[in-house]
Amino acid sequence: MNKKICEYLNCNKSKSFNEILFSYIDKSGHKDSEIYKKVDIDRKLFSKIRCNNNYIPKRKIIIKLCLALELKRNEFNNLLNSAGYSLSNNKFDQIISYCLDNNIYDLKQINQYLYTFCNASL
After folding, report:
1. Phi-psi sector, 22: left (phi>0), alpha (psi -120 to 50), beta
2. N or C: which end of the chain has fewer CB within 10 A?
3. pLDDT tens-digit profile of 16-53?
4. Radius of gyration of the chain from Cα atoms?
5. Is 96 exposed, middle or buried (0-12, 13-18, 19+ CB in 10 A)?
6. CB within 8 Å of 75: residues ≥ 6 apart
């Protein structure tokens, strides 16, 4: 019985958040330092993300990583979902969706929208 479950789990294993994130970073051609500086997180936290395969950062950090990498909607959703998160229908997430749909990746501009329409920021 345990063998069947193990086979099933191995066959249906999806990539981890960590694997997906770093494949997108590699694909982008950016250095790690460029990404974590753009996202405004420190090297220590970024190292924790890189070195600990089981570490999942907060949702806002993942959104900022997605935007820094200028991911398209399907890639954005793929990375967010791999961490157990998704976009909902609240105003904050609608603004993020609007920015994705309109290729707006500038974090300052996005934060202006977020602050204006829902008094929040990334």
Report:
1. alpha
2. N
3. 899 999 999 999 999 999 999 999 999 999 999 999 98
4. 16
5. buried
6. 24, 66, 69
